[in-house]
Amino acid sequence: MTPQEFDWLRAFLKQQSGLVLTTEKQYLIESRLLPVARKTGLGSLSNLIAKIREPGQSALAATVVEAMTTNESFFFRDKTPFEHFTGTMLPQLLEARARDRRLRIWCAAASTSQEPYSLAMCLKEAEAKLAGWRIEILGTDLSTDVLEKAKVGIYTQFEVQRGLPINQLLKYFTQTGDTWQINANLRSMVQYRKLNLLEPFSTLGQFDIVFCRNVLIYFDNPTKIDILERMSKMIPADGFLVLGAAETVVGLTDVFRPMSDRRGLYQVAGAAASRPALRAIGGAPAEAGVGTRFGTLLAR
C-alpha cells in the first residue's frame, strides 16, 4: 500500500463512518483489511483499494468499513452507567412518566448487544415496578454482521465471563455446548436497526435515555459536535444521555450539561431543553409497534 493509497483510504473511512485514523494506524488497516483482500480474491491492499474505487462496488466498500469498525463490547461494561440507570435514571423517569407508562431507550452503538441486553436484565430485575409499562429498547449499529449476531444472542464462554455475574448468567441464559444464548423473553425486549451516525437519525423519534458510549472517541471534534447536537433534539429536558468513560461534552457543545456526581451522565441544557421534542414518524420503531409491555412479559 503506497502513501497515496493510505491517504485515500483514510479519507474514505472518515467520509463513510467518521473513523479518524492517524498515520501510525497503518498497522491497524493492514491487520483488518488484508483478510478482506484475501477472502475476496484480490490478494493485496492495493488491489482492494483499487477495486472499491471502481463504480458499483458499494457492497465491497461496506465490507471494508465494517471490517474497520471496532466492535469491542461486554456485559455491564464499566459498571457505573448501569448503576446510574437503576439508581438515578429509572427512579426519576418512573415518576415523571407515571401517567404515560412508557419509556424509550436507544443504544446508539449496540455492537453485538451486550449493552442493550444488560439494560434488559436491569429492567427485568425491576419488573415489579414496571408492570403495565411499555418499554422500548432500540439497538443500532453500522455493522450488519454484529447486528445479526445481536439478534440471535449467542455468546461464547469468554464473552459471558466478561462482566456478567454468574447468577444472571444462570438466570437469563441457556447453555448449549460451549455457547450461551440469552433467553427469548430478553431478546424480545430489544429491536435492531442498521444506522450510520453520520447520517440523519431524527426519524427514530424521541428517547428518554440514549446510550452513546465508546463511539465518539473515534470521531473528530466537528463530527462529535454534530452528532451530539442532533441527539439533543431527540431527548426531552428530563431525559438522559450516557457517554463512555473517556468521552465528554465539555469543551465541545453546551447543548448538554453534565449531571453532578454522575460520571458520564448528561441532560439537555438551557435553551436546548425548551425545544419541541421530536416524535417518531414514517416507519420509526414507535409506529411499528416496537417494544415490550411488561404486564405481558411477566407472564412468560
Give a description of the structure.
There is one protein chain. The chain is α/β, with parallel strands linked by helices. The chain folds into 2 domains: 3-68, Chemotaxis Receptor Methyltransferase Cher, domain 1 (Orthogonal Bundle), CATH 1.10.155; 80-297, Vaccinia Virus protein VP39 (Rossmann fold). Helices cover 41% and strands 16% of the residues. It contains 13 helices and 11 strands. The strands form 2 sheets. Strands 1, 2, 6, 7, 8, 9, 10 and 11 form an 8-stranded mixed beta sheet that branches. Strands 3-5-4 form a 3-stranded antiparallel beta sheet. Helix 2 crosses helix 4. It starts with a helix and ends with a helix.
Topology:
Layout: H1 3-17, H2 26-39, H3 45-52, H4 58-68, H5 80-96, E1 102-107, H6 114-125, E2 134-141, H7 144-152, E3 154-156, H8 157-161, H9 166-172, E4 173-176, E5 179-182, H10 184-187, E6 190-194, E7 209-212, H11 221-232, E8 240-243, E9 256-258, E10 265-268, H12 270-273, E11 292-293, H13 294-297
Helix pairs in contact: 2-4
Question: What proportion strand?
Answer: 15-25%
- CATH fold type of the largest domain: Rossmann fold
The end-to-end span amounts to 55 Å
Assigned CATH architecture of the largest domain? 3-Layer(aba) Sandwich
Instruction: Find the CATH superfamily of the largest domain.
Output: Vaccinia Virus protein VP39
Structural class: alpha/beta
How many domains make up the coordinates?
2
